[in-house]
Protein backbone atom coordinates (compact mmCIF):
# COMPACT_ATOMS: atom_id res chain seq x y z
CA UNK A 1 0.00 0.00 0.00
CA UNK A 2 2.87 2.37 0.78
CA UNK A 3 4.34 1.88 -2.70
CA UNK A 4 1.00 2.83 -4.30
CA UNK A 5 0.94 6.02 -2.26
CA UNK A 6 4.45 6.93 -3.39
CA UNK A 7 3.56 6.21 -7.01
CA UNK A 8 0.48 8.44 -6.74
CA UNK A 9 2.47 11.26 -5.18
CA UNK A 10 5.21 10.97 -7.80
CA UNK A 11 2.65 10.91 -10.64
CA UNK A 12 1.01 14.06 -9.25
CA UNK A 13 4.38 15.80 -9.10
CA UNK A 14 5.09 14.78 -12.67
CA UNK A 15 1.70 16.18 -13.70
CA UNK A 16 2.59 19.49 -12.05
CA UNK A 17 5.85 19.52 -14.01
CA UNK A 18 3.79 18.94 -17.17
CA UNK A 19 2.07 22.32 -16.76
CA UNK A 20 3.12 25.62 -18.23
CA UNK A 21 1.30 28.62 -16.76
CA UNK A 22 -1.18 26.24 -15.14
CA UNK A 23 -1.98 24.40 -18.39
CA UNK A 24 -0.80 20.93 -19.40
CA UNK A 25 1.18 21.26 -22.64
CA UNK A 26 2.42 18.64 -25.05
CA UNK A 27 5.97 20.02 -24.95
CA UNK A 28 6.16 19.75 -21.16
CA UNK A 29 4.72 16.22 -21.19
CA UNK A 30 7.36 15.23 -23.73
CA UNK A 31 10.07 16.67 -21.48
CA UNK A 32 8.76 14.76 -18.47
CA UNK A 33 8.60 11.51 -20.46
CA UNK A 34 12.12 12.05 -21.80
CA UNK A 35 13.37 12.56 -18.25
CA UNK A 36 11.63 9.40 -17.11
CA UNK A 37 13.14 7.47 -19.99
CA UNK A 38 16.63 8.60 -18.98
CA UNK A 39 16.21 7.82 -15.29
CA UNK A 40 14.30 4.53 -15.83
CA UNK A 41 12.58 4.43 -12.41
CA UNK A 42 11.61 1.15 -10.78
CA UNK A 43 7.97 0.17 -11.23
CA UNK A 44 7.78 2.34 -14.30
CA UNK A 45 4.62 0.73 -15.72
CA UNK A 46 2.37 1.48 -12.71
CA UNK A 47 3.92 4.95 -12.54
CA UNK A 48 3.17 5.66 -16.20
CA UNK A 49 -0.42 4.39 -15.86
CA UNK A 50 -0.99 6.59 -12.82
CA UNK A 51 0.64 9.56 -14.56
CA UNK A 52 -1.70 9.07 -17.55
CA UNK A 53 -4.73 8.98 -15.25
CA UNK A 54 -3.65 12.15 -13.46
CA UNK A 55 -2.97 13.91 -16.78
CA UNK A 56 -6.40 12.97 -18.15
CA UNK A 57 -8.02 14.36 -15.02
CA UNK A 58 -6.02 17.61 -15.27
CA UNK A 59 -6.86 18.03 -18.96
CA UNK A 60 -10.56 17.47 -18.20
CA UNK A 61 -10.35 20.12 -15.45
CA UNK A 62 -8.94 22.68 -17.88
CA UNK A 63 -11.31 21.89 -20.77
CA UNK A 64 -14.90 23.04 -21.18
CA UNK A 65 -16.54 20.46 -23.43
CA UNK A 66 -19.44 22.25 -25.12
CA UNK A 67 -22.11 20.14 -26.79
CA UNK A 68 -24.58 21.92 -28.99
CA UNK A 69 -26.85 20.98 -31.90
CA UNK A 70 -25.49 23.76 -34.11
CA UNK A 71 -22.42 25.90 -34.53
CA UNK A 72 -21.43 28.52 -31.98
CA UNK A 73 -20.01 31.91 -32.83
CA UNK A 74 -16.36 32.43 -31.91
CA UNK A 75 -17.43 35.29 -29.63
CA UNK A 76 -19.72 32.93 -27.69
CA UNK A 77 -16.94 30.38 -27.30
CA UNK A 78 -14.59 33.11 -26.08
CA UNK A 79 -17.19 34.33 -23.59
CA UNK A 80 -17.66 30.79 -22.26
CA UNK A 81 -13.89 30.37 -21.87
CA UNK A 82 -13.61 33.70 -20.06
CA UNK A 83 -16.50 33.05 -17.68
CA UNK A 84 -15.31 29.55 -16.73
CA UNK A 85 -11.71 30.74 -16.35
CA UNK A 86 -12.96 33.35 -13.90
CA UNK A 87 -15.34 30.92 -12.16
CA UNK A 88 -12.72 28.23 -11.58
CA UNK A 89 -9.79 30.64 -11.16
CA UNK A 90 -7.66 28.61 -13.59
CA UNK A 91 -7.27 28.59 -17.38
CA UNK A 92 -10.17 26.82 -19.11
CA UNK A 93 -10.22 26.22 -22.87
CA UNK A 94 -13.36 25.35 -24.81
CA UNK A 95 -13.81 22.42 -27.14
CA UNK A 96 -17.03 22.25 -29.16
CA UNK A 97 -18.64 18.97 -30.16
CA UNK A 98 -21.82 18.76 -32.22
CA UNK A 99 -24.63 16.78 -30.61
CA UNK A 100 -27.60 16.22 -32.88
CA UNK A 101 -29.62 14.60 -30.07
CA UNK A 102 -30.12 18.05 -28.53
CA UNK A 103 -33.07 20.14 -29.68
CA UNK A 104 -31.72 23.49 -28.54
CA UNK A 105 -29.31 24.85 -25.96
CA UNK A 106 -25.93 23.64 -24.78
CA UNK A 107 -24.35 21.37 -22.21
CA UNK A 108 -20.94 22.26 -20.82
CA UNK A 109 -18.76 19.81 -18.91
CA UNK A 110 -15.71 21.01 -16.99
CA UNK A 111 -14.07 18.10 -15.18
CA UNK A 112 -16.85 16.48 -13.16
CA UNK A 113 -19.18 19.51 -13.32
CA UNK A 114 -22.02 19.49 -15.85
CA UNK A 115 -23.95 22.61 -16.78
CA UNK A 116 -27.16 21.84 -18.65
CA UNK A 117 -28.82 24.72 -20.52
CA UNK A 118 -30.82 22.60 -22.95
CA UNK A 119 -34.55 22.63 -23.57
CA UNK A 120 -34.80 18.97 -22.53
CA UNK A 121 -32.93 19.70 -19.30
CA UNK A 122 -35.18 22.61 -18.45
CA UNK A 123 -38.30 20.56 -19.15
CA UNK A 124 -36.99 17.74 -16.95
CA UNK A 125 -36.31 20.14 -14.06
CA UNK A 126 -39.77 21.68 -14.50
CA UNK A 127 -41.40 18.23 -14.43
CA UNK A 128 -39.49 17.36 -11.23
CA UNK A 129 -40.61 20.64 -9.67
CA UNK A 130 -44.28 20.04 -10.54
CA UNK A 131 -44.35 16.47 -9.23
User: What is the CA-based Rg, rounded?
Assistant: 19 Å
Biggest β-sheet: strands ordered side by side in the sheet: 4-3-5-6
- Strand content is 15-25%
Largest sheet: 4 strands, mixed
The total beta strand count reads 6
User: Helix segment count?
Assistant: 5
Q: Using the alpha-carbon principal axes, give the shape.
A: elongated
Quaternary structure classification: single chain
What's the end-to-end separation, in Å? Answer: 48 Å
- Contiguous low-pLDDT stretches (5 residues minimum) are none
| Average predicted local confidence, pLDDT | 86
Question: What order do the helices and strands follow?
Answer: HEEHHEHEEEH
Q: What's the number of domains?
A: 2
Helix-and-strand structural type: alpha+beta
> Helix coverage percent of residues?
55-70%
Descriptive key words:
four-stranded mixed β-sheet; elongated; two-stranded antiparallel ribbon; 131 residues; single chain; alpha+beta
Please, could you describe this protein's structure?
With 131 residues, the chain is α+β, with helices and mostly antiparallel strands. The chain has two domains: 2-60; 63-130, no CATH class. It is 57% helix and 21% strand. The protein is built from five helices and six strands. The strands form two sheets. A four-stranded mixed sheet has the order 4-3-5-6. Strands 1-2 form a two-stranded antiparallel ribbon. Helix 1 crosses helix 3 (44-61). The longest helix is centred in the middle third of the chain and has 18 residues, at 44-61.
Amino acid sequence: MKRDKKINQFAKRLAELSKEDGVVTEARVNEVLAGLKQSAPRNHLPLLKTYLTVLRREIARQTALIRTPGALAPEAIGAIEASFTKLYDRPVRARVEPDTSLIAGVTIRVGDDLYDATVAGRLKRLAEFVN
